[in-house]
Design a protein that fits this description.
This protein is α/β, with parallel strands linked by helices and about 325 residues long. It has 11 helices and 13 strands.
């Protein structure tokens, strides 16, 4: 079977492309290699895919319909599109909202239009985010909860992408399902996220910023568990295109206090952090916590990696990648 994976040089996209290839899919890996964070990391991920004979990388921008079609190939008819490309980062969306609308809203339309042009009209599994829950106080967050009050432009664009997917299901019968990821971490992770930022600072003896004076919780989810959830969603929608839920939560179902998270990184690094306590940024939320009953039932999703297990694996990879 043929799969198109967008954002294949990104953190989650790279791991998903590698998993699909290992399961026998022919993978067309798409990425525009933008410089939101150092391109060298994206190139390192692509290098890890180079030895796979059933992966073809093509550079393309999901917000450019013509360029995307050329990158994929006019004669390509995919069985599944796994759309993971996006402009990521909650806090950066305050500074550059247009980039988020372009990639996450316009890009979503482009991907569904691409699916419409293909004879098989392939289903789309796409990345959403726990950020859509905004400042909801009822926990754990359930797919049935209202998501009408996003607190960042990033969250608003991700919710917009979900609504666009709904309209394409209704009007054009393109099967799709969105995956609301909860704070994904692990090897090859993003430099703008807390595991990387904290590990880097601790190993260099630099201070870390602890927002909301440490009174925050996150449902940290290890990358291998996320990939298993994505693969479960791919299998489900291929077997039962009309029998998938519009969205699924993919989280660890075990929120961890920020101060405990820092302690685990300190233990893995063998050093104590220099903590600089700060107020909470306006685009952040105090807690994320995934209800995963639906994903467990439909996708066989069962996260198995605790933070105590996953953070040392990330720190070990980080040390090797950064020479520390």
């Amino acid at each position: 079977m043929k799969a198109i994976v967008t954002g294949a040089a990104g953190f989650i996209g790279f791991h998903v492309a590698r998993r699909l290839a290992s399961e026998g899919f022919d993978v067309i890996a798409i990425d525009n290699l933008n410089d939101y964070y150092p391109v060298a990391l994206k190139e390192a991920r692509l290098s890890a895919l180079d030895g796979l004979s059933n992966v073809r990388f093509a550079r393309g921008n999901i917000a450019d319909p013509q360029g995307l079609s050329i990158a994929i190939g006019d004669d390509v008819d995919a069985d599944i599109i796994v759309h993971l490309a996006a402009q990521a980062g909650v806090r950066y969306s305050v500074e550059n909202p247009a980039a988020y609308v372009d990639a996450n809203v316009h890009g979503q339309v482009t991907i569904f239009e691409q699916a419409l042009k293909m004879p098989k009209r392939p289903p789309v599994v796409y990345a959403s985010s726990s950020s859509v829950y905004g400042a909801n106080t009822k926990v754990p967050f359930s797919e049935n909860d209202p998501v009408d009050h996003p607190v960042s432009v990033y969250a608003a664009t991700k919710r917009s992408a979900e609504l666009l997917a709904h309209s394409y299901r209704h009007v054009h019968k393109i099967a799709s399902t969105g995956l609301r990821f909860f704070t994904v971490y692990g090897p090859y992770g993003r430099p703008d996220m807390a595991p990387w930022l904290f590990t880097d600072a601790i190993l260099q003896g630099k201070p870390i910023k602890v927002y909301n004076h440490g009174h925050m919780q996150r449902d940290f989810t290890f990358i291998d568990d996320i990939v298993s959830g994505v693969y479960g969603a791919v299998n489900r929608i291929l077997a039962h295109p009309e029998g998938t839920a519009p969205v699924y939560n993919l989280g660890n179902n075990k929120p961890v206090a920020l101060m405990r998270f820092i302690e685990i990184i300190e233990n893995a690094c063998g050093r104590e952090a220099i903590k600089q306590f700060e107020p909470m940024p306006p685009a952040d939320v105090k807690c994320t916590y995934a209800d995963i009953d639906l994903a467990s039932r439909d996708l066989g999703f069962s996260p198995a990696t605790t933070l105590e297990q996953g953070i040392p694996l990330f720190v070990e990879w980080f040390r090797g990648y950064n020479g520390r």
